[in-house]
Design goal:
- By secondary structure, the protein is of the alpha/beta class.
- It has two domains: about 260 residues, Class I glutamine amidotransferase (GATase) domain (Rossmann fold), CATH 3.40.50.880; about 60 residues, no CATH class.
- Helices cover about 40% and strands about 20% of the residues.
- The protein is built from ten helices and eleven strands.
- Strands 1, 2, 3, 4, 5, 6, 7, 8, 9, 10 and 11 form an eleven-stranded mixed beta sheet that branches.
- The longest helix is centred in the last third of the chain and has 35 residues.
- It is globular.
Length: about 350
Amino acid sequence: MPIFWDLDPSSDDSAARQQTTAQRVRIGVVNNMPNGAMQATECQFFSLLGAAAEGIDVHLSIYALPEVPRSDSSRRYVQASYYDIERLWDSQLDGLIVTGMEPLAANLADEPYWGSLTRVLEWAEDNTHSSVWSCLAAQAAVFYLDGITRRRLTDKRCGVFDCTQASDHDLTAGAPAVLRVPHSRWNDIAESDLARCGYRILTRATDGGVDSFVKQRNSLFIFFQGHLEYEKNTLLLEYRRDIGRYLRGERDTYPRIPQGYFDANTAAALAALEEQAIRDRCVDVLGDFPMALAEKNLVQPWRTAAIRIYRNWLAYLGTQKERQREELAPERWFAAAD
């Protein structure tokens, strides 16, 4: 079905308004990703929701938190292509997706965007049927809602992990019993803390970490610590970026190779590059990164499950919207008769 992403706030969306379908859902995306990944994230969600939109027209509007640090060029892009977050407060959407962001402070409440992010949380409670909170946004949400604090990992959890379904839920219906899911994060949330506060665990990684979980509030809140939206080369680009940060002295340790992601030949080439980089720490080493070899053999084993899960989510939004319409119809009818 058609998917419309309004990347021009000045547009009247007339083409979309002319479409007539049995179901239409309106989704907002609050994109908090850093400068280098911002537009790639737009494409990832556009592609995933488009593949999942079976029998449903999806209308997307995109927002950004003003306090997320941006370069001058990225700030101009946001101003030209995104809706001002202030427009969100007086609107209603069927669903909302809030992306992760790079951690800047040890304490979440000290992040520069904390005030705006928590206002989005409060808004989503009463103005959506369901909202999706990704990676650090998920950790920030449970901290604000229930005081659950994240735990710093000894190293970045990066790679593709086997995640087993922990309970039956409509969101994961039709997905395989074991999903392979990309993760890329520095922090974790204890399952015991989530269970104590009434969250329902949907999937957990084989290493014991929680992958996805939900909580029914006024809106169904869905939390992903992983990244079902990632394209097959996203972890590759992040890994290369982190190597560059090491070579420029922006991080102290060489990044660990993503787990369960590269084939044996690529892993061997990357191990040789690591030895070279540690021996001769200069940015020129990045020129030897085996990009062609790595990209040639990449696969995307999470894509089918990702489409299924987001298709289930869109179906839920459509169902809730129809129920709301049926509940409100008599009131509107009597008002019109008066």
